[in-house]
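Progress report, Aim 2. The chain analyzed during this reporting quarter is listed below.
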Amino acid sequence: MEILDKLLTPDTVLLTRDGVLHNRALRQGVQSFTLNAQGQLTRTKLPLDTRTRRPQAPSILKALKTTYQHAPHPIALTLSAELPPKVLKAHRTRRRRIRSYVGSVDNLATVAWTIGARRHQDHLLCGYVMHIEGHQGVKGLRASEAYGIDPSLPPDPAQCLVHALCDLFQLHLEHVKHELFVIPTDVYELARQVVAHQLPESAPPVQHALSQILGALPEVVVSPCVKGRFYSQMQRKLSQLTTSPTNEIVSLDFSDIMRRLGGSGV
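Predicted structure tokens for the chain:
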């Protein structure tokens, strides 16, 4: 969006491999060249799926920034160390999708989480759905959801929060406001305790890992989620996952997360 808003003029010629940017530049009246499906240079519109077209999010910056490079948070670097290239590429794809939707990282306003959990085979099935909101120009986006279980650890209410919030660092969303809408009562009470800096020293390592994660965020609001559309959707999804065969449940390793964050495994 910053390229379209601040760098392109009728006298500009854009050369890009980004098909969406190419088509948007042409709609803006700018000359643009890209590669077609045959790898040939073209200045005509690409036949992208028109169902994905939507109004562009506006730029909210008055001038160009000296850099648009986002410096990863130390926790993100810690969690990403030695991950397979395929996993790192998936994180980059998700980051790009979010930023493309809201227009730029500066247009990100709030990240809202629906946090759920359910006992399953003597362990805790953790689930979350993440929505993002922009400052202006775009509706909310259901940006991510995931469900996982650690088959090596007994249930702990911190697990579903750690599962969700580790993702926000991988997506470079640690700088915006986060609203946690928590369904399980014990998880909600723990989140409130951690945000209020009232976690006892004797708490389990995974809860101290949660405290470290939440302490790195500038603004966190915790609210109970006891009814409504998002509550019903999460409860229905967790019920489905625990009663029917599925490949949606990923294997989690909270001991590795605690080790990476400086804690100890159980």
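Residues 85-102 form the longest helix (18 residues). The chain is about 35% helix and 20% strand. These observations will guide the mutagenesis work planned for the next reporting period.
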